[in-house]
Amino acid sequence: MPPRTSRWLALTLGITLGGMTHASDNLTPAAATNNDPHRWLEQIDGAKQLDWVKQQNASTVKKYADSAEFKQLDARLLEVLDSTARIPMVSKIGDRYYNFWRDKDHPRGLWRRTTLDEYRKDQPQWETVLDLDALAKAEGENWVWHGADCLKPAYRRCLVSLSRGGADASVVREFDLADKQFVANGFALAEAKTQVNWMDQDHLYVATDFGPGSMTTSSYPRIVKEWKRGMPLASATTVYEAHKDDMSVSAMRDLTPGFERDFVMRQLAFYDSETFVRGKDGTLTKIDVPNDANTDVHREWLLVEPRSDWAVGGKTYKSGSLLVTRFDDFMAGKRDFTVLFEPSDTTALDGYSWTRHHLILNVMDNVVNRLEVLTPGPGAWGRQPLGGAPQLATIAAAGVDADDSDDYFLTVTSFLQPTTLYYGSLGQGEAQAIKHSPSFFDASKYAVSQHFATSKDGTRVPYFEIAPKQLKANGSNPTLQYGYGGFEISLQPSYSGNVGRAWLEKGGVYVIANIRGGGEYGPRWHQAALKANRLRAYEDFAAVSEDLFARKITSPKHLGAMGGSNGGLLMGNMLTLYPQLYGAIVSQVALLDMQRYTHLSAGASWIAEYGDPDKPEEWRWIQTFSPYANAKAAQHYPPALFTTSTRDDRVGPVHARKMYAKLQSLGYDASFYENIEGGHGAAADNKQAAFMSALGYTYLWDHVK
Predict the structure, then answer these.
(1) Which residues contact 591 (CB under 8 A, 6 or more apart)?
(2) How many CA atoms, within 13 angstroms, populate the side-chain half-sphere of residue 252?
(3) Tens digits of per-residue pLDDT, 296-308?
């Protein structure tokens, strides 16, 4: 479940799908809570609960992760993750290029830097800035890197965020890049889901846990303050207080030379926010755009991405468009926009990135990328293509330093082509390839194709298929179907050594389903499966499965399904709504108890996606996609594995614990594994990540081969 970033009707009870009725019997949320025999598992760190977790883990390891074959796969996946031939992706901080790196010798990781000339070499010389393994050992903490924010233009002081075990909550410490050490008596914040940004060397904007009443019901900061160096945090000056039922609040200073401005961001809900300009006297002036629009202020420009059709200035702009105007003109009341992108039936904006003089647009057309370079000028903006990608590949570009240059990095990847990294400068000829990821399996044996299934309501749903070139359409091919279908997140072509080694090399077929709820066709694709329409995402996934059967690629006993987070909720619903379609299911770090989700971890922040189960009128349709509520006896559920992490403070381990416990109590073939570390990613280092991946792939293969 992603945190909200700037990037990025009703169905009734008793819906019949495939001849089966799938809904609980009009339970209210309160009644379901009171009658829940597995509620005791909601105490995440209780001794009794963790003992139960360890017992289930041991049983799953004995059954699926204790063989020589498993250990060989685990080692081969770890080899992929630890490979020193991987591309070390970098970001520019000052005049150096920084990378965070994990491998066999550095499982917690190194924050390191080099020069551009050195980075271009096959074997760059790196200077270590912070050794997280050494720090963790010295302090007796299982630190996981959460990034650094460095103060420009000097780029000497940084705010480093570190998580215990991978949770979203972090501690923040001031770090000196020149001395390569933490600043004695510098800025420091205790563990919390903190938002912190530099104002200048002696002042910060801080939104954190200031004590009782300072966090929202979504578990994020409700209050943002201005904090001066040397002053106790308790004495910091309040800048803005959001409501308890808002999602979060934060503030930042844009330090772009000549365009310094302060902003306060109030996140009302996952897709609704307000942005204010903060004056020198502390007054706040709202940027008057729709609350569901994404906004970006860059130098003299205001960019707006409306998520609903927007009528303004005598014109109507389509949902999913990208609009631009001069920021000062807009704040003065003018409403003259230039349309930089407008979606079609097959296209959507995938993202954009600034260089000093240009804007790079990333557009998807039927889930395949193309890039354009836009240049502001008098009248219309100039427009020209950038680069090219192989068929059914993903191409992406980003400016290196929007303050100083038109340099950019460009990556090209596909299901069968390892990532290549290019470096170029707009207007200076073609970008040059400077890094190549290694191959981890023989891609020459496989072919990629794109297909379209027809969903229950007639919607065409795209999906990618990676299969052996000599595939026989006999309905018996072991197939793994993966999906997500939420939060406007798109699943695009990308290379995975793990998929190649764990699935394709064994003769399996791998399928990516681009179902509604995602962002493959922009906001409309996402909004088509929101709240009361959630079942459309599951209908789409089922339609892809049925299309695979119709094409004789596979059959139900040979089809496995996998998904994580919101995709784990998808898996829970495929289990309870469409059990006849699958031979096995793996649900990872999932939401599953949709009656209780708003009261677990950060669940309240996703009401805009799923609805509020505490409102009886909304619970009536939420329960149609609540796997925990809908699981019942005497069904033909396929075997299912639920994996999670104790340190996941976003979705939390409670959903997986309870779903597994309920299925087990009903006599179904279910398995469970909870990594004690890992956060929402379910792994705190490469070794844990390899194990969790090997477990999921092994489980599916054992059941569908």
Answers:
(1) 1, 565, 566, 568, 569, 572, 597, 603, 606, 610, 651, 655
(2) 14
(3) 999 999 999 999 9
pLDDT over 90 percentage in the chain? 92
Amino acid in the structure at residue 618: E
Q: 16: which residues sit within 8 A by CB, 6+ positions away?
A: none
Q: Is 357 a catalytic residue?
A: no
Q: Are strands 393-399 and 407-414 parallel, antiparallel or unpaired?
A: antiparallel
Structure tokens at 561: 């399904």
Residue of 565, 605, 626, 693 marked active site: 565
d(CA 271, CA 277): 20
Pairing of strands 420-425, 407-414: antiparallel
Residue 292 has pLDDT above 50, yes or no: yes
pLDDT tens, position by position, 128-177: 999 999 999 999 999 999 999 999 999 999 999 999 999 999 999 999 99
Q: Do you find a cis peptide bond into 468, omega within 30 degrees of 0? A: no
Q: What is the dihedral of CA 559, 564, 566, 572, to 10 degrees?
A: 50
Q: What distance in Å separates the CA atoms of residue 429 and residue 426, rounded to the nearest whole number?
A: 7
- Residue for token pair 């060989």: 72
pLDDT tens-digit map of 578-625: 999 999 999 999 999 999 999 999 999 999 999 999 999 999 999 999
Please report the beta strands in 104-176, taking only residues with DSSP state E, as ranges in sequence order: 106-114, 127-131, 143-150, 157-164, 170-176
Domain ranges of the chain: 46-77+446-704, 95-151+154-192
Exposed e or buried b for every residue in 67-101, given b needs 16+ CB within 10 A? eeebeebbebbbebbbeeebbbebbbbeebbbbbb
For the chain, what's the residue count? 705
CA pair distance 637, 598, nearest whole angstrom: 27
Task: Quote the strand ranges of 605-646, DSSP E.
Answer: 640-645
* Residue 428: Cβ-neighbour burial (10 angstroms; 0-12, 13-18, 19+): exposed
Tell me what pLDDT residue 247 has: 97
Give me the amino acid identity at 460: R
- Give the separation between CA 405 and CA 425, rounded to whole angstroms: 8
Q: Are strands 420-425 and 106-114 parallel, antiparallel or unpaired?
A: unpaired
DSSP 3-state assignment of 460? strand
Q: Give pLDDT, residue 377.
A: 85
- Residue in this structure with the two tokens 């050494």, named with its chain if needed: 134
Q: What is the CATH number of domain 46-77+446-704?
A: 3.40.50.1820
- Integer angstrom CA distances of residue 499 from 418, 510, 628, 696: 12, 8, 29, 11
Helix axes 535-550, 566-577, angle to 10 degrees: 70
DSSP secondary structure letter of residue 525: H
Whether 248 is catalytic: no
Q: What are residue 411's DSSP bridge partners?
A: 396, 421
Quote the CA–CA distance of 143 and 408 in Å, as a whole number. Answer: 32
Report the distance separating Cα 673 and Cα 56, nearest Å: 7
SS3 category, 239:
strand
Confidence of residue 21 (pLDDT cuts 50, 70, 90): very low
Phi, psi angles (nearest 5°) of residue 675: -75, 130
Rounded Cα gap, residues 269 and 607, in angstroms? 8
- Report the distance separating Cα 392 and Cα 390, nearest Å: 6
Of 146, 358, 680, 703, catalytic: 680
pTM of the entire structure? 0.93
For residue 171, list its beta bridge partners: 162
> For residue 183, is pLDDT > 60?
yes
Maximum pairwise Cα distance, the chain:
72
Residue labelled with tokens 């409700």: 222
